[in-house]
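In the design runs reported in the main text, the only information available to the sequence generator was the tokenized backbone. The following block is the verbatim input for one such run; it is reproduced so that readers can re-run the procedure and compare outputs position by position.
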């Protein structure tokens, strides 16, 4: 902060200003006529009897404060100072209105992007055609989401996906659009139907699209994902996961199948993804999800919800209709979060065989 003292001031006052970090220039011999020539860099002007004229105020491009350190009268051109204050106020108001207009334009664009994103997510009717009893809890942190869910059918196979892309908001949404586009190509176009091979192919697409080379400092954008393939003819469910697990409940017991500890992206080690296969029974319930629910801060102590309470919540409500389970999860999340900010996108897909 640059301070110009255009009059006499005690050495202690000058020292106090310097201790506050101010860059102080003192010139007590400046006249009212000389002041406009030296005022341009000053942010604070301190005067006693020296007059501050309209010419000085016009020349003070950085000035934000004038201090009269004495009992002088009519030493500051108040009319000009007031006009300058009003001009600055008008400028600030104009800038505020411009920022508000820009924010509205950006927000409107993001809302339009939300409509596009939601339009490519599978509809309830499409999922219900094969998995009649299911729910999807989808709660973006921002308007658009880096988490996504996806479903398709190929012959006797129903493929269900819950994915968590790097980031959230607009960057995460771009990644989710890439993920959905690649899954459509891999499964619907190329008819790759083994859960592990779908993730292998998806990883190849992500690495190629983002030009990932594994160099130090390179962005490791990608996604964590849980993917299931249900085959009606064989009565099996295949699972493959990238960092994310599969939970399933059978005979009132919850079991977890871990995904591989690597993302769908460039990684230090990239072995093929592991294929898990389960012989399904009527009444089995499966859950795939992102980490947004378990990682949410809240409660009395402001801590994460965590996975153990999440599993207990699923187990305690698993006998209820899937739609009611979704409502229980939604209410639990809201009650836990309280006034804390939602820290991540949330997606949970549950389906009963």
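Verbatim output:
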């Amino acid at each position: 902060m640059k301070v110009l003292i255009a009059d006499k001031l005690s050495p202690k006052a000058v020292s106090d200003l310097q201790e506050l970090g101010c860059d102080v220039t003192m010139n007590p011999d400046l006249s009212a006529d000389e002041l406009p020539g030296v005022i341009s860099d000053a942010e604070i002007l301190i005067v006693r009897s020296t007059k501050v004229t309209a010419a000085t105020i016009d020349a003070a491009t950085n000035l934000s404060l004038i201090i009269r350190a004495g009992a002088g009268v009519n030493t500051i051109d108040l009319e000009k100072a007031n006009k300058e204050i009003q001009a600055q106020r008008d400028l600030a108001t104009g800038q505020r209105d411009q920022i508000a207009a820009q924010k509205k334009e950006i927000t409107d664009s993001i809302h339009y992007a939300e409509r596009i994103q939601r339009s490519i997510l599978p509809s309830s009717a499409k999922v219900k055609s094969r998995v009649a009893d299911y729910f999807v809890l989808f709660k973006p942190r921002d308007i658009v989401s880096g988490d996504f869910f996806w479903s398709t059918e190929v012959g006797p196979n129903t493929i269900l996906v819950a994915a968590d892309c790097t980031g959230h908001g607009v960057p995460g949404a771009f990644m989710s659009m890439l993920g959905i586009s690649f899954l459509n190509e891999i499964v619907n176009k190329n008819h790759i139907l083994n859960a592990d091979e779908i993730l292998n192919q998806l990883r190849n697409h992500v690495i190629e699209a983002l030009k990932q080379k594994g160099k130090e400092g390179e962005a490791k954008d990608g996604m964590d994902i849980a993917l299931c393939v249900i085959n009606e003819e064989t009565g099996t469910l295949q699972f493959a996961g990238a960092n994310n697990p599969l939970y399933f409940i059978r005979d009132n017991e919850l079991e977890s199948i871990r995904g591989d500890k690597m993302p769908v992206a460039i990684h230090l080690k990239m072995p093929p993804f592991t294929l898990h296969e389960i012989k399904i029974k009527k009444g089995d319930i499966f859950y795939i999800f992102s980490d947004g629910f378990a990682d949410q801060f809240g409660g009395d102590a402001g801590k994460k919800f965590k996975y153990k309470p999440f599993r207990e919540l699923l187990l305690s409500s698993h006998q209820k209709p899937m739609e009611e389970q979704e409502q229980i999860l939604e209410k639990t999340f809201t009650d836990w979060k309280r006034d804390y900010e939602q820290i991540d996108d949330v997606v949970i897909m549950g389906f009963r065989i």
